[in-house]
Design a protein that fits this description.
This protein has 112 residues and is mainly beta. Helix content is 0%, strand content 53%. A hairpin with a 3-residue loop joins strand 9 and strand 10. It starts with a strand and ends with a strand.
Length: 112
């Protein structure tokens, strides 16, 4: 059974940083495309970043230069380092693996 568990969310002031983690069980993240999505209140879920098997990454324009996605194969974990956070980054952040598998999300709240 595949499980993705996100953690690391919380309340932070604008300009601050957080690091989200997505720990997987039942599936190897090193052999998978893994993405972060987010959903703000009243809005649709949107793509944030992804990392593919060769380590290549891609980012939404809104987070480019501020967020970094990375992977620790030994820990079967994918991270999202978020710097220079803005109030508009407030959302529930979800980990996605191979398109089909989703975690339950972790809430990030950025205060002005």
């Amino acid at each position: 059974q595949v499980q993705l568990v996100e953690s690391g969310g919380g309340l932070v002031q604008a300009g601050g940083s957080l690091r989200l983690s997505c720990v997987a069980s039942g599936i190897s993240l090193s052999n998978s495309q893994v993405a972060w999505y987010r959903q703000a209140p009243g809005k649709q879920r949107e793509f944030v970043a992804h990392i593919i098997t060769d380590g290549s990454t891609n980012y939404a324009d809104a987070v480019k230069g501020r967020f970094t996605i990375s992977r620790d194969n030994a820990k079967n974990t994918v991270y999202l380092q978020m710097n220079s956070l803005k109030p508009e980054d407030t959302a529930v952040y979800y980990c996605n693996c191979r398109v089909f598998y989703w975690g339950k999300g972790t809430l990030v709240t950025v205060s002005a």
